[in-house]
């Protein structure tokens, strides 16, 4: 691991801008979906009871999609933030299923918080540790 305050390559701000812009647009689309589904749910009384479970499930899945998108955006920002002047991601293999990625304190906390949605579905862990995040893939052979 190297110093988290080191310089970034000149192209890193372009990657950061791309990830921010892409994340913003993804959030906008998902938020519009959630809002529209809430409108459908509020007006679904006329649709009959047979449709209600499907509408409720669509709303629930849209909200889960928002959480998973936030996790993916946080992971992408974490990786882009760990790119050094040499163009490499500042990371270290800790075990065959675990890697530590350099991050600022705020980015480490953010990645850990948002990755909980992915962890709940897959078992992947993202734990902030000092100036890094430790990502661990579960052993699925057990």
Task: Please sum up the structure shown.
The protein has 142 residues and is an alpha+beta fold.
Summarize the structure in words.
The structure is a single chain. The chain is α+β, with helices and mostly antiparallel strands and 142 residues long. The chain has one domain (12-136). Helices cover 55% and strands 14% of the residues. It has four helices and four strands; from the N terminus they run ααββααββ. The protein has helices spanning 12-42, 52-81, 105-114, 116-122, and strands spanning 91-95, 98-102, 125-129, 132-136. A four-stranded antiparallel sheet has the order 1-2-4-3. The longest helix has 31 residues, at 12-42. The protein is elongated, with a radius of gyration of 19 Å. The mean pLDDT is 85.
User: Can you write the helix and strand succession as a string?
Assistant: HHEEHHEE
| Assembly level | single chain
Instruction: Name the structural class.
Output: alpha+beta
**Count, helices:** 4
Low-confidence spans: none
C-alpha termini separation: 31 Å
Number of domains: 1
- The overall pLDDT, averaged over residues, is 85
Report the biggest beta sheet as strand number plus sense, adding barrel if it closes: 4 strands, antiparallel
The amount of helix comes to 40-55%
Shape: elongated
Rg on CA atoms, Å: 19 Å
Across the major sheet, the strand order is 1-2-4-3
Strand content: 5-15%
